[in-house]
Amino acid sequence: MIPDGKMYMEDELGAGMIASTEDYTALTEQTGADVGFGYGVIIQNGKVIPATKGPIFGIALRRNWANADHFYDSDIKNDKFTTGETITVLRDGIVAVPITADVNAGENAAVDANGGFKPATAGDTVVGVFVGNGDKGNTARLQTRIQLASGNADNLATGSQPVATPSTDTKNNAGSSSTGK
Length: 181
Description:
By secondary structure, the protein is mainly beta. The chain is built from 1 helix and 11 strands. The protein has one helix at residues 73-77; strands spanning 24-30, 40-44, 47-50, 58-60, 86-98, 108-111, 117-119, 128-130, 139-145, 168-171, 177-178. Strands 1, 2, 3, 4, 5, 6, 7, 8, 9, 10 and 11 form an 11-stranded antiparallel beta sheet that branches. Strand 8 (128-130) and strand 9 form a beta hairpin. The longest helix is centred in the middle third of the chain and has 5 residues, at 73-77. The radius of gyration is 16 Å and the shape is globular. Mean pLDDT is 80; it is low at 156-181.
């Protein structure tokens, strides 16, 4: 029997999955609203919520289990973090994100009004770069590196920088923790 490398898998990664073997940096935060996997988030009143514009605080990483009674495709597809859950937010790395328009590798990325991602246009705040192609309604690989000077869309008027909780975690894809890269 010849193994089929795509058995039970689709060509693209699921939204919120780490999409590289490179090191990445993420923080653990609590949600203040429902947040979809792979969506851009901001900090509002000390909790993460979906972003509606840039700059962003980070990108919500997916969990490795489904919060459903059955493993129906619709249950898995509609799974998300609910208000009050503790989630992991990517701050630096490459992740699969939901896209609302066709994208090409090398294009700058921006957040749309729902927290998904699209190619950046004039007037958009660039939040990353697409490192893979993608078709509208699917996912694409996006590299982000949140800059401290970029602020947070929720508090741009005051100029203050969001304060992260002390639960910083830097990991490599092999699953072991480290304190640096």
